[in-house]
């Protein structure tokens, strides 16, 4: 059940694609300033879960409550305006626009008046993007493009940041950098729900985790109680 302190509450969520039911009644909460990692094998419904919160996919049953408001079935743009901002797996940058232009677009709908201040902040999180601010996004490496996608989400002053595999397809050096940035966002008070296959990254930044399996939440808990022993988690996810 939703507690007053949970910013997001997912209750009994069912999602199907045609006849195929991918989520079969999942429940979880995210508290303000918490970082929660969604783990699970390929195809376990992690992206579907985020896409349903964002309003890109309609659930067949269940409820999503954000900051006390039932957002189930609301249009994506309305959910975005409330401050739920997703960085999807495909990143969706404008390839022929510059880094700075891509970033500024992130602040246009939410946070228009705060754009200059937020841009300066994003360049502090990502000094590399400041150096490349006049380059077209398509000329960046995958890791740098992921930074633009993250930075663009931060421009919107999100109340809940949804990250879908921020380390996906990136070289180890970039995975570390992305991890450092997520940690910095967290230290600055961000609330994050993050899908991540890289357990080292997930457990480095997350307070709590849930595991999706067979369409339900099969396990979950506080990262600190694992005390660095992830073998059972790996088994729960993959075996
Ligand atoms: N738009 C879609 N139409 C039909 N099936 C889909 C669609 N999106 C995802 N699926 C299927 O739903 C299941 C869960 O997908 P997804 O949520 O992307 O999993 P994950 O992100 O955990 O890898 C997979 O079997 C996938 O093939
Ligand atoms: Mg996915």
Please specify the SSE layout and strand pairing.
Blueprint: E1 6-17, E2 20-31, E3 35-39, H1 46-53, E4 61-66, E5 69-70, H2 76-82, E6 84-87, H3 99-106, H4 115-125, H5 127-131, H6 142-155, E7 160-164, H7 172-187, E8 192-195, H8 199-205, E9 208-213, E10 216-222, H9 231-238
Parallel strand pairs: 3-8, 3-9, 6-7, 7-8
Antiparallel strand pairs: 1-2, 1-4, 4-5, 9-10
Helix pairs in contact: 3-6, 4-6, 7-8
The structure holds adenosine-5'-diphosphate and magnesium ion.
Please identify the oligomeric state: single chain
* Sequence of strands across the biggest β-sheet: 6-7-8-3-9-10
Helix proportion? 25-40%
CATH superfamily of the domain at 6-83 and 159-238: P-loop containing nucleotide triphosphate hydrolases
The CA-CA distance between the termini, in Å, is: 30 Å
If helices are DSSP runs of H or I spanning 4 or more residues, what is the number of helices? 9
According to DSSP, the number of beta strands is 10
Q: Main attributes?
A:
binds magnesium ion; 9 helices; single chain; 239 residues; binds adenosine-5'-diphosphate
Commentary on this structure:
The chain has 239 residues and is α/β, with parallel strands linked by helices. The protein has a domain at 6-83 and 159-238: 3-Layer(aba) Sandwich (Rossmann fold), CATH 3.40.50.300. Helices cover 35% and strands 26% of the residues. It has 9 helices and 10 strands. The protein has helices at 46-53, 76-82, 99-106, 115-125, 127-131, 142-155, 172-187, 199-205, 231-238; strands at residues 6-17, 20-31, 35-39, 61-66, 69-70, 84-87, 160-164, 192-195, 208-213, 216-222. The strands form 2 sheets. It has a 6-stranded mixed β-sheet, with helices on both faces. Helix 7 (172-187) links the parallel strand 7 (160-164) and strand 8. Helix 3 (99-106) packs parallel to helix 6, helix 4 packs antiparallel against helix 6 (142-155) and helix 7 packs parallel to helix 8 (199-205). It is globular and about 45 Å long. Bound molecules: adenosine-5'-diphosphate (ADP) and magnesium ion. Adenosine-5'-diphosphate is lined by residues 17, 22, 40, 42-48.
């Amino acid at each position: 059940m939703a507690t007053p302190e949970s910013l997001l509450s997912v209750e009994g969520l069912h999602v199907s694609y045609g006849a195929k039911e991918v989520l079969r009644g999942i429940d979880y909460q995210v508290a303000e300033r918490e970082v929660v990692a969604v783990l699970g094998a390929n195809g376990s419904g992690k992206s579907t879960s985020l896409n349903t919160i964002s309003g890109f996919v309609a659930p067949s049953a269940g409820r999503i409550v954000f900051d006390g408001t039932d957002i189930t079935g609301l249009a994506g743009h309305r959910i975005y305006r409330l401050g739920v901002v997703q960085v999807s797996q495909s990143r969706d940058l404008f390839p022929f626009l510059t880094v700075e232009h891509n970033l500024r677009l992130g602040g246009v709908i939410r946070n228009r008046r705060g754009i200059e201040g937020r841009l300066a902040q994003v360049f502090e999180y990502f000094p590399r993007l400041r150096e490349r601010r006049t380059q077209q996004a398509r000329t960046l490496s995958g890791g740098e493009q992921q930074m633009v996608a993250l930075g663009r989400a931060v421009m919107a002053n999100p109340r809940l940041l949804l990250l879908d595999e921020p380390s996906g397809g990136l070289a180890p050096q970039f995975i570390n950098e992305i991890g450092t940035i997520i940690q910095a966002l967290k230290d600055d008070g961000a609330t994050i729900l993050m899908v991540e296959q890289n357990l080292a990254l997930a457990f480095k930044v997350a307070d709590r985790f849930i595991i999706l399996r067979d369409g339900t939440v099969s396990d979950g808990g506080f990262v600190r109680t694992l005390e660095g022993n992830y073998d059972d988690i790996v088994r729960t996810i993959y075996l």
